[in-house]
Amino acid sequence: DAGVTQSPTHLIKTRGQQVTLRCSPKSGHDTVSWYQQALGQGPQFIFQYYEEEERQRGNFPDRFSGHQFPNYSSELNVNALLLGDSALYLCASSSVGVDYEQYFGPGTRLTVT
Amino acid sequence: GEDVEQSLFLSVREGDSSVINCTYTDSSSTYLYWYKQEPGAGLQLLTYIFSNMDMKQDQRLTVLLNKKDKHLSLRIADTQTGDSAIYFCAETPSNTDKLIFGTGTRLQVFP
After folding, report:
1. N or C: which terminal CB in chain A sees fewer CB atoms within 10 Å?
2. Which of B33, B95, B4, B25 minimizes the C-alpha distance to A56?
3. How many whole angstroms separate alpha carbon B31 and alpha carbon B49?
4. Do the Cβ atoms of A10 and A113 come closer than 8 Å?
């Protein structure tokens, strides 16, 4: 049973560029949440997708957007990258009705130069 | 408000018990969690406890919840070098599925 997978593993971008990160949820899960983890900090909630719609959102600017596909996989897009966007981006999946069990992927390390 | 606090470091000898503490401020939280993060890796769900429970035991792990003081602890019995990692406490406020994390406690186990 494949767990949560994310791609790419690492990414280097320049300020002002745009980036897309991808996540495939654990088999049987239909909900995907994205988190940003800055160095030395705990993860911060960005948003959550269910039934292809954004269900909840944290305190992140509109530069952060997402999408969920019919197969439950998800993308996180960040526009106009800032140096402060450098972080580990984590995807978590869960299942409606069992939302208390959120399983995380290995993350994508984004470096903005 | 939403705020989860943890001490930054804990160092224990192999074979001893480790106790990692956490305080949270949202009394409406439904579930409280412990996650483990090894260097360069994602988060591994260790265990969680429902807010109406006081204690949960799972093999070497014991979780204690004191709702009155909003205090959560994780005890690891017979700590091994493989337990060295960062441990995050997290809560889910009511009416939401988002996880609110603490800043993490780095556990170092020495022989």
Report:
1. N
2. B95
3. 6
4. no
Name which of B55, B18, B89, B51 is nearest A43 in CA terms: B89
The per-residue pLDDT for range B89-105, each reduced to its tens digit, is: 999 887 788 899 999 99
- Look-up of token digits 């919840």: B65
Least confident segment among A11-20, A25-34, A94-103 = A94-103
A56/B97 touch (CB, cutoff 8 Å), yes or no: yes
Q: Is the peptide bond before A8 cis (omega within 30 degrees of 0)?
A: yes
Are A21 and A89 in contact, with CB atoms under 8 Å apart?
yes
Q: What is the pLDDT of residues A29-87, one digit of tens each?
A: 999 999 999 999 999 999 999 999 999 999 999 999 999 999 999 999 999 999 999 99
- What value does the mean pLDDT of chain B take? 92
Minimal CA separation from B24 to chain A, in Å: 14
